[in-house]
Amino acid sequence: MSNKKIQPKLILVGAGPGDPDLITVKAIQALGKADIILYDALVNKKILGYAPPGVKKVFVGKRNGQHSLKQHQINNLIVDFAFTYGNVVRLKGGDPFVFGRGYEEIEYAQSFNIETQVIPGISSSVGVPALAGIPVTHRGASESFWVITGTTRTGELSRDIKLASQSTATVVILMGVHKLQQIVEVYKSSGKGDLPIALIQNGTLPDERIAVGTISTIEAIAADRNIGSPAVIVAGAVVKLHPEFVAKDVFEKYLAS
């Protein structure tokens, strides 16, 4: 039996948007010191390879409509494992504080006087559009960007989408593909039927799929390309910078010449 003194600790780690090469050096260092790892559904399993040999890895992932564990159960596991194993690395996709419920887990652990640390990750809200060729801000096109959850905890569409649709900001919607029809209706009611929009499924990964169009056309294009979850929605003038839009503009100018 090991005589190692247990020092309970929680390290909340962002795994990035999917591509394992996008994890940070600090996150890799944390994984290398883990006594146990709890990881989510959107974490690329290649990242788990940075853990020491033999370290236990527990899947606690949640997907829309498919929850392996409820949040309070995950909170309890973190505390139990911290006192049993010591250094718990809680690995979350993207950034743990961007719709990751990370602060809830930190707060719960701290209520048991467990030491905590946060290591940010690249959020899919900016990383996925960037690697698809869409900047969330661009001089002359967008002075700001909103990041909004597509679904509130009551299962409804976020009311912030209505407010955002009335602005000139880039709007990035996470966890909203299954509510695309409602999102389209919100933008149409704001007179934005011609606004460019993109859906990016499995962003940063080899099987990434993208649908690019306007508010008025995106539902048909997304259906044709079989876009599903997990996907990031980007609405705004910056979407015109995507290569598909650029090629279309060049072609239309050629036809008009």
Tell me what the structure shows:
With 257 residues, this protein is α/β, with parallel strands linked by helices. The chain has 8 helices and 12 strands. The chain has helices at 25-31, 71-84, 102-110, 124-131, 160-165, 180-189, 218-224, 243-256, and strands at 9-14, 36-39, 56-59, 62-63, 66-67, 87-92, 115-119, 145-149, 170-174, 196-201, 209-214, 231-235. The strands form 3 sheets. The chain has a 5-stranded parallel sheet, with helices on both faces. A 5-stranded mixed sheet has the order 8-9-12-10-11. A two-stranded antiparallel sheet has the order 4-5. Strand 4 and strand 5 (66-67) form a beta hairpin. The N and C termini lie far apart (81 Å). The model has no long low-confidence stretch (mean pLDDT 92).
Task: Spell out the key features of this protein.
single chain; 257 residues; alpha/beta; five-stranded parallel sheet; five-stranded mixed sheet
In a nutshell, what does this entry contain?
29% of the residues lie in helices and 22% in strands.
